[in-house]
Design a protein that fits this description.
Blueprint: H1 3-36, H2 46-74, H3 76-95, H4 102-134, H5 140-165, H6 172-175, H7 177-191, H8 205-224, H9 239-261, H10 275-291, H11 294-309, H12 317-346, H13 349-366, H14 375-402, H15 409-453, H16 458-465, H17 469-478, H18 488-491, H19 496-503, H20 507-539
Helix pairs in contact: 1-4, 1-5, 1-7, 1-12, 2-3, 2-4, 2-8, 2-15, 3-4, 3-7, 4-15, 5-12, 5-14, 8-9, 8-15, 10-14, 10-15, 10-20, 11-12, 11-17, 11-20, 12-14, 13-14, 13-20, 15-16, 15-20
Length: 550
């Protein structure tokens, strides 16, 4: 087997594992939290959901550039292999967390996921660079397109296996990673060439610390801004949240000043003078900023509202939510390799730009759907969104990597992935803020009137209307009905008819659906604007630009 195909098969395995892990956790979160016995209506529980969702990406956002520089210095294959080793260890630890361990189990889950993110970061930052090194410039688009298919295959496996395995034992969703990680580790040890790298030069400690601290401060500020503070449903008035943003900005200023002066910078800022690199990275950032949280909100829409309204039990919703999301992955599978091959011949500008325009149009189409939508139309929109995503992703990645010299591809890909992960992290905070803000405006009166229309006593309707909107959103996603939020003193005196209504699969979705769709539409309108701005940057990247250096 030619070495380039060895690299492709190994990185494909790593990407399948990473994407499968990402989607299997996302789709199985309701089962995981029920297995840990987390009650979303208890004070402070929402933070665990936020950290499970955002902790992985926060770690990636802070370490990818550093990992890329380490890989350039000490050899990509060696550092890549360590990614598999760390991923294996963390998967074993995650599978050993006891059931019914409550908040302590959730804390262990967060810590071990952070360790897993380190392994995932080592794999992510090196896989694209290894492929770019192994394939000549006239074949890179096709190779990256095929690699993109592996991401979709892993996503498909995650969605389906998450729904199937979580129904038996939530630990299995972490166990399933282990065979992939061990196989990839052995394959990389014996088959990938160990290159010397650029050698041990200065690690630019100041640059690493200031960039990591700045990204961490901004990410933490955005995360804790989503938590209730005082009498507010959001945390934007929290002094610690307010302080995080100027701290982050200060760290970025110090980082830029340091990078311009230091002899061996963490990243050569002069590369941003290359339009193919800088404009492609900005387009990627805007795409991640727009789409990062929207797809998660669509998952909540399916699992917490649509599927229960159509008779699916909460044990069934993870599997069927995965099934209903598949058309988007199929569209990406179809268009990814096509977009990559076209990029090899004609350049990335036209195809990446058209891909972003397609994404914007389909996002807008989602805003035209009611909360209890027509399934066939929903699936068509997701499929075309996948086509647009495939047409953007492979050409954009190929153009960015083609603009870098071999000695810079590790750090350059780290910057590319950092742009993507920072965009996704900000996206989660931004669109959750919009959703919960809309909930806070419309939900109390709506939940009161709906509860009364169901025949519930005014005392219960008032109690439900005062529940934190974030807790209700969390509960809908986890499949936990509001009867569990009632104090024992109230619940003990209620007729069985009232408890039956609160425990029904349709009560909470009917309450949340009309207000959720308002918040989702506001979010999508903003996302459409961001994607269209990204399309402008994508078009401005210029004509085909390739550094053909092996």
């Amino acid at each position: 087997m030619e070495y380039k195909w060895i690299v492709l098969t190994n990185t494909t395995l790593g990407i399948i594992m990473s994407s499968m892990n990402m989607y299997i956790v996302l789709i199985s979160l309701p089962t995981i939290f029920r297995g840990l016995s987390i009650n979303p209506f208890f004070p402070g529980e929402f933070v665990y959901l936020l950290w499970i969702l955002m902790g992985y990406s926060i770690v990636l956002a802070t370490v990818l550039v550093f990992f890329g520089r380490i890989s350039d210095m000490y050899g990509r294959a060696r550092v890549y292999t360590w990614g598999f080793i760390i991923f294996t260890i963390s998967s074993v630890l995650l599978s050993l967390i006891p059931s019914d361990s409550g908040n302590s189990g959730a804390l262990m889950l967060i810590i071990f996921r952070v360790i897993q993110a380190v392994g995932g970061g080592l794999l992510m930052v090196n896989s694209t660079a290894l492929l770019t090194d192994a394939f000549p410039s006239n074949e890179r688009g096709r190779a990256l397109g095929l690699n993109q298919i592996s991401f979709v295959v892993g996503s498909f496996l995650g969605l389906i296996l998450g729904g199937l395995l979580a129904g038996y034992d939530w630990h299995l969703i972490f166990v399933v990673n282990i065979p992939f990680a061990v196989t990839g580790m052995v394959w990389s040890i014996f088959k990938l060439k160990r290159t010397a790298g650029t050698g041990a030069i200065s690690l630019d400690i100041v640059g690493n610390l200031t960039l990591a601290t700045g990204l961490l401060a901004i990410s933490l500020g955005l995360t804790y801004a989503l938590m209730p503070y005082g009498n507010s449903s959001m945390g934007w008035e929290n002094p610690w949240v307010i302080a995080m943003f100027p701290v982050g900005a200060l760290m970025f200023l110090i980082f830029i000043f340091n990078e311009r002066k230091v002899k061996a910078p963490l990243f050569d800022l002069s590369l941003f003078k290359i339009r193919a690199f800088s404009y492609g990275s900005i387009a990627l950032f805007l795409n991640s900023l727009a789409v990062g949280a929207i797809m998660f909100l669509v998952t909540i829409w399916l699992q917490g509202i649509y599927l229960p309204l159509h008779g699916f039990t909460y044990t069934e919703t993870p599997f069927w939510a995965g099934v209903y999301m598949l058309p988007m992955l199929v569209g990406t599978v179809i268009m990814g390799p096509i977009g990559g091959s076209l990029t090899d011949k004609y350049g990335a500008r036209a195809f990446a730009t058209i891909g972003m325009i397609i994404i914007a149009c389909m996002l807008f189409a989602l805003t035209l759907l009611p909360y209890n939508f027509n399934l066939e139309l929903f699936e068509v929109i997701l499929f075309i969104t996948g086509l647009g995503s495939g047409l953007f992703s492979a050409p954009n990645t190929t153009a960015i990597m083609n603009s870098l010299r071999s000695s810079e591809r590790g750090a350059g890909n780290g910057v590319r992935m950092t742009f993507s992960n920072v965009g996704s992290t900000i996206s989660m905070a931004m669109f959750f803020t919009i959703a919960i803000t809309v909930f806070s405006i419309y939900l109390p009166s709506h939940i009161y009137s709906t509860a009364v229309s169901y025949g519930l006593p005014a005392q219960i309707a008032t109690f439900l209307s005062n529940l934190p909107p974030s807790g209700l959103l969390f509960a809908a996603f986890l499949g936990i009905n509001p009867a569990s939020a009632l104090p024992t003193s109230i619940a003990g005196d209620l007729p069985s008819k009232v408890i039956t209504i609160l425990d029904s699969h349709t009560f909470l979705p009917s309450v949340l659906g009309p207000t959720f769709i308002i918040g989702l539409r506001f979010s999508i309108y903003i996302a459409v604007v961001l994607v269209l701005i990204g399309a402008i940057f994508s078009y401005m990247r210029g004509k085909k630009y390739v550094i053909d250096e092996q």
